[in-house]
Amino acid sequence: MPHKQHRTVVRPALTAEQHSLGEVSAMREIRVWFSKTGSARFISHLDLMRCMTRAARRAHLPLWYTQGFNSRVYMTFALPLSLGVSGLRESMDLRLEQDMPVEEITKRMNKVLPPDIRVLDVTEPKMRPGEIEFASYQIFLPSKKPQSLSQGIQELLQRQPLLVDKKSKHGVLQMDLHPELNRTQVSATPEGVCIHAVLPAGCNFNLNPHLLVNCIETYLKITLNAQIVRTDLYNAGMQPFI
After folding, report:
1. pTM of this structure
2. Which of 3, 23, 27, 38 has the fewest CB atoms within 10 Å distance of its CB?
3. Final residue in a domain of this structure, among 74, 95, 125
């Protein structure tokens, strides 16, 4: 019987400078892909970081710690989720002191994580989080009159300008939402309305999907119980973040 082959993330070749530093030469960076759904969507980003740190330690991964007096686990997230938003393809970067098969990392992490947070895969980082420019969302709006609601939303999205209040560090600013919705599709289902939207995201400009929902509620004078899921992240060329 053939042996099962284990997939291991391959560490890139080290530079001469890295070879001169013993602690660096033993380090490799991995990207852990995970989903955050169900009740976990109400976990804040700070609590998620604590949860992942505890899980990585309990999974006995060969973690690399930052240098200095107050050392900590090296862990970074590509783009934090807004509270209440589920994520199907989230990622965090870790550094390990030695190689470990992908299947083993996945198995160990899922064994100690809450049921609504699942590790899906582990890869070598190919893109920098700073390259993220867009995020895709599925927004479901339950409704007893889906056709009427769908028509109302489609008419609303044609309005120019579509002014909304956006909270920022400098207070509440008014912005025109219309130019940011050119990749938005609206369709009715028997249970409600489904909105597929690709919105600006990243360190330069990030548009919270709750802003779109709030806009619909304000203009149509209704209250919605929106279910928002982030499905993927993209760079400026609309290539999936990897």
Report:
1. 0.86
2. 3
3. 125
Per-residue confidence (pLDDT) for residue 69, from 0 to 100: 80
CA-to-CA separations, 65 to 20, 34, 123, 211, 214, in angstroms, rounded:
19, 22, 20, 38, 42
DSSP 62-100: -B-B--STT--B-EEESSPPPTT-EEEEEEEEEEESS--
Residue 5: the pLDDT is 52
Domain holding 180, by residue range, is 130-234
Question: H or E stretch including 233?
Answer: strand 227-234
Cα–Cα distance between 139 and 186 in angstroms, integer?
Answer: 9
CA dihedral 90, 92, 93, 98 (to 10 degrees): -100
Whether residue 121 is found in the same domain as residue 134? no
The CA distance from 151 to 155, in Å, is 6
d(CA 214, CA 94): 36
Residue 23 has pLDDT above 50, yes or no: no
Domain count, the chain: 2
Buried b (16+ CB within 10 A) or exposed e, 131-157: bbbbbbbbbbbebeebeebbebbeebb
Is pLDDT above 50 for 131?
yes
Q: What is the pLDDT at residue 7?
A: 60
State yes or no: pLDDT of 215 exceeds 90.
Answer: yes
